[in-house]
Amino acid sequence: MAAQAKYLKDYQPVDFTIDDISLTFDLFEQSTRVVAVSKVTRLNSSATQFVLDGVELTLVEVKINGQKTESYQCHAETMTLNVDEDSFELTIITEINPLKNTSLEGLYLSGGAYCTQCEAEGFRKITYFPDRPDVLATYEVKVIADCSFPFLLSNGNKVEEGELADGRHFTVWKDPYKKPCYLFALVAGDFDVLKDTFITQSGRTVELALFVDKGNLDKSEHAMTSLKQAMKWDEEVYGLEYDLDIYMIVAVDFFNMGAMENKGLNIFNSKCVLANQETATDKDYHTIESIIGHEYFHNWTGNRVTCRDWFQLSLKEGLTVFRDQEFSADLGSRALNRIAAVKVMRTHQFAEDSGPMSHPIRPEKVIEMNNFYTVTVYDKGAEVIRMIHTLLGKNGFRAGMDLYFARHDGQAVTCNDFVNAMSDASGVDLTQFKRWYSQSGTPELSVSDDYDATTETYSLTIKQHHPLTADQASKQNLHIPFAIQLLDEHGKVFALQNNGQAISNILNLTDSEHTFVFEDISQTPTPVLLEDFSAPCLLNYDYQTSQLITIVKHAHSEFSRWDAQQTLFTQLIKGAVLTKPNKLLSADVVQLIQDIIVDEKIEKELKAELLKLPTFETIAAQFKTVPIDDILLIVEQFESEIASEFSESFIALYRQQADHGAISAEAVGQRAIKSVCLYYIAKVDVSEGNELLINQFKSNNMTDVLAVLHAAVVSSHSLMHSFLSQFEQKWQKYVLVMDKWLAVNALIKQGDVIKHIQQLYQHPCFDIANPNRVRALVNSFTFFNTAFFHAKDGSGYQLLTDLLIQLNEINPQNASRLITPLMGWKRLDTVRQELIQSQLKRLVSLPNLSPDLYEKVVNALK
Ligand code: B3K
Ligand code: ZN
């Protein structure tokens, strides 16, 4: 039977709810007994059947008010209980097999420790329960296990513990806050613990505990520091205080996502916790800070106020991503954080929104909910919140958040409830704005302008256009905040005015076309358009190269400078794909790059960004049919020209960077510059450059070491093999670092690349059941080894599909995430289209295709 779709329009409140549940887990690897005692209340007096979800459970017994009953029916994924009381106690005893559970959803074993993952619909793999987020209950949990598992953890506060016979022991946990079952968590294992405390703004002391695999305490400090910073930030910016006496984080190796915000007991992928200078890059440090913050911020946006149904996922995810982005921006560089977020949008979200899985941030139709933890729901969702922030201003937004919590604390609500609180608190009309929640696709904004020197007026005409998407056949105009700045030739900003009245630099677009007129503009201005990426849109404006150079060199906004550089390089590459010139670098671009290299005022990390070309996807987005081979060729040519033109400048710039080996922003900036220099230096295999590579490879800092390894591999440098094997020798026992090695190996561009990757499947550190290992190797290949993944003999597509067929049985969620690079096949040339289609057909014909892959493959083949 094909998997069934669910629709937002069909939402119905529950007939029965569970207000309180007591769970007892008697943990055994292959047969864990779960006793669930629930207080059930009938909400709809005419209902006589209580339907509970349950998957892969062995049912032992059902009791109503303590009496064994047979008055139920079990179906494939539900149990229907016949009921004639308004409130009763329901006892359900089930058995589950954590060892066999490779889906990493429900209760499973990770490296010998028991742990759980219940979002979105994993609680049904633990016991029969109405597994939906609008059933809010208080939980008491008893965990029983062998004493070889010293730590037995669950949500809330520990209220009891003790010894039992046969070398077993137990703990009892009580969570005073009502929560949906997706926030339930249990962990049992042996760990090292980093402890700390945090004193809240009201003076309460909260215990903090970070549980890591034995021997990893030296890699846990950064996560703890990040947690304390997040707790403080949420108090300062939103007045939100933590509400339990203890906050626990457990790091596990087998995890499908980055982390999970279970109430009081976050479970993290170890890769998003563990870091020290030797083993983690500066980017890893940043990721850890942002994910620790993200999960902490969920305590209010997600846990205290949760989602009514899963279609509302962006209610908590879009908002929480926005909050974690602002947290990182306040802690570090606002511009760099914005650049990173916009890269994600342009590289991944735009592609998703123009492909077969296009969906609004509040989807309307879902087969497998796990397929909707997407860049659209998360990152475009965060952009939508950011636009609300822009429209309301800082104070209006804060008033909206305050009202949202005042109205909805302890409830399961909708995106509409959130937007209503925002508009009610601020008085800003968000009626048209709400369409962002229901409309998919990337809006296209076309801008034209006109300057009249005699009247000194400048007019800007902006049109919004909404291309149709796979999921929607009609589109409406959106309310788009369009930020601008007008610069003179030196980068000075013109005041915006009309009729003597100041005009805000945020223009409100609501119709298909608007013309804005600005007076007192003394010379043809250079417009900075969609400043700070004020709306998640594509922009069409016919920039002159000289205008872009003015912005890159003179704009005050660091983001705008980077953005103009991206536009400049993208335009250059796009033009070259069509004309195939012998030389790409014109004199003015050479001058610009040289100026950037020597400019000592530019912040270092920004300088590094300004010296990189746009991502493949950013360039590909410029074409209806993506000319893969041409883009690769031109990018390669462009980079080689930069590398040889500036080879001495890069070496000089490199030598200016002192080696600090620390975590300060300055040190991070220096490493970023050294990395970009080495990237170009490695392309010119000369002895002076090679010396730099060899020296930096000896560093004790992973950012430095990985930069060398990456530069050597992608340039097929003569030192590549030596570096790879030295790295492997040194780190073979530490899997998280070996993930970096796997990822770099997947970028090799020489010899039989497919065979090389197949051989890596056999490497002692590789484990197909571990999502980190698989993603490190395979995503790196499919996303970044573009030439070989898209090889015209189809071998790259086949390699991925072979793996998906295996993973379909082992871990469908992971399989479904890895299929992304095959989804956009309609935008490729006909040869590749056919090759991918034939692989998708292999998948669709599998007898046991999981709902996860089914939903994607069927959409892709439509
Ligand atoms: N809420 C979790 C993600 C759950 C994934 C379910 N497949 C992590 C987060 O967004 O914070
Ligand atoms: Zn989240």
TrEMBL record:
<dbReference type="InterPro" id="IPR027268">
    <property type="entry name" value="Peptidase_M4/M1_CTD_sf"/>
</dbReference>
<keyword id="KW-0378">Hydrolase</keyword>
<dbReference type="GO" id="GO:0008270">
    <property type="term" value="F:zinc ion binding"/>
</dbReference>
<dbReference type="GO" id="GO:0016285">
    <property type="term" value="F:alanyl aminopeptidase activity"/>
</dbReference>
<dbReference type="InterPro" id="IPR037144">
    <property type="entry name" value="Peptidase_M1_pepN_C_sf"/>
</dbReference>
<dbReference type="InterPro" id="IPR001930">
    <property type="entry name" value="Peptidase_M1"/>
</dbReference>
<dbReference type="InterPro" id="IPR042097">
    <property type="entry name" value="Aminopeptidase_N-like_N_sf"/>
</dbReference>
<dbReference type="GO" id="GO:0008237">
    <property type="term" value="F:metallopeptidase activity"/>
</dbReference>
<keyword id="KW-0031">Aminopeptidase</keyword>
<dbReference type="InterPro" id="IPR012779">
    <property type="entry name" value="Peptidase_M1_pepN"/>
</dbReference>
<feature type="domain" description="Peptidase M1 alanyl aminopeptidase C-terminal">
    <location>
        <begin position="546"/>
        <end position="861"/>
    </location>
</feature>
<comment type="function">
    <text>Aminopeptidase N is involved in the degradation of intracellular peptides generated by protein breakdown during normal growth as well as in response to nutrient starvation.</text>
</comment>
<feature type="domain" description="Peptidase M1 membrane alanine aminopeptidase">
    <location>
        <begin position="223"/>
        <end position="436"/>
    </location>
</feature>
<dbReference type="InterPro" id="IPR045357">
    <property type="entry name" value="Aminopeptidase_N-like_N"/>
</dbReference>
<dbReference type="Pfam" id="PF17900">
    <property type="entry name" value="Peptidase_M1_N"/>
</dbReference>
<dbReference type="InterPro" id="IPR038438">
    <property type="entry name" value="PepN_Ig-like_sf"/>
</dbReference>
<feature type="domain" description="Aminopeptidase N-like N-terminal">
    <location>
        <begin position="36"/>
        <end position="183"/>
    </location>
</feature>
<dbReference type="GO" id="GO:0006508">
    <property type="term" value="P:proteolysis"/>
</dbReference>
<dbReference type="Pfam" id="PF01433">
    <property type="entry name" value="Peptidase_M1"/>
</dbReference>
<dbReference type="InterPro" id="IPR035414">
    <property type="entry name" value="Peptidase_M1_pepN_Ig-like"/>
</dbReference>
<dbReference type="InterPro" id="IPR014782">
    <property type="entry name" value="Peptidase_M1_dom"/>
</dbReference>
<dbReference type="Pfam" id="PF11940">
    <property type="entry name" value="DUF3458"/>
</dbReference>
<keyword id="KW-0482">Metalloprotease</keyword>
<keyword id="KW-0862">Zinc</keyword>
<feature type="domain" description="Peptidase M1 alanyl aminopeptidase Ig-like fold">
    <location>
        <begin position="441"/>
        <end position="542"/>
    </location>
</feature>
<dbReference type="Pfam" id="PF17432">
    <property type="entry name" value="DUF3458_C"/>
</dbReference>
<keyword id="KW-0645">Protease</keyword>
<keyword id="KW-0479">Metal-binding</keyword>
<comment type="similarity">
    <text>Belongs to the peptidase M1 family.</text>
</comment>
<protein>
    <recommendedName>
        <fullName>Aminopeptidase N</fullName>
        <ecNumber>3.4.11.2</ecNumber>
    </recommendedName>
</protein>
<dbReference type="InterPro" id="IPR024601">
    <property type="entry name" value="Peptidase_M1_pepN_C"/>
</dbReference>
